[in-house]
Amino acid sequence: MQQSLDSISDCPTTKKQDSAHTSMLKNFLSGNFVEPLLSDFRIIFERDPAARNWLEVVFCYPGLHALCLHRLAHWLHGRGVSFIPRFISHLGRFLTGIEIHPGAEIGQGVFIDHGMGVVIGETAIVGDYTLIYQGVTLGGTGKETGKRHPTVGKNAVIGAGAKVLGNLQIGDRVRIGAGSVVLRDIPNDCTVVGIPGRIISRNQNASLSPLEHGKLPDMEATVIRSLLSRVEELEKQLQILRQESSVISHQSLAKDEWQLTTDKGQRTNDK
Fold this sequence. Notes:
Elements: H1 2-28, H2 31-47, H3 54-60, H4 62-77, H5 83-96, E1 99-100, E2 105-106, E3 111-112, E4 119-120, E5 125-126, E6 131-132, E7 137-139, E8 151-152, E9 157-158, E10 163-165, E11 169-170, E12 175-176, E13 181-182, E14 190-193, E15 198-202, H6 219-270
Parallel strand pairs: 1-4, 2-5, 3-6, 4-7, 5-8, 6-9, 7-10, 8-11, 9-12, 10-13, 12-14
Antiparallel strand pairs: 14-15
Helix pairs in contact: 2-4, 4-5
């Protein structure tokens, strides 16, 4: 009798546990988890001309693999699981060469092209439909706690090898040139190049495809051309001044000779 009463008293607890597990499973399979994965999958066909069929994309794109593993790790991380998310992140790093901390927030439709060497820190936020190339770092600059990694807006393009360091705000539709090092906030619709990164254009042409990141202007070449042009102008002015100086010298010498001849003639007449 006592056993039956115990079993009856345990039923509500068991039902609550089953309900909690079912709720977690539903949340896991809900649109909040699956929809970003579908967006990550579809965006590859839009932005990579080498993507020919779904089989290649599923099995041969490390960026997609890294994002899938990260979304699982981030889901677990958000529910207080301690070790498993970091292990999944480490496993993703081993398999893909892309390291994304489970705490990072990645929007939907993000495309990591090739991806080898990409590092995204714990408090980084990446907006929807951002394009990230290989070697990119979204990192911190010290041992401070709290928000210490960049926030990247929507539809941004971060070129190969670019470094964005610190708690920065990178606006929507920003283009960061390959190899740039960004150390300050960037407003919307800007193009950034150089070390440290400098804004070289604002309100850029929105009609350009995100893949056309090779059309960024070369600021160093522009400055060098300007300096060379200035040097040529100065050399021409110097040459003109030398010619004028030479003419003045000849005129002065001729005048002195004439004056000397005149003085000699006057002395001869006086004698």
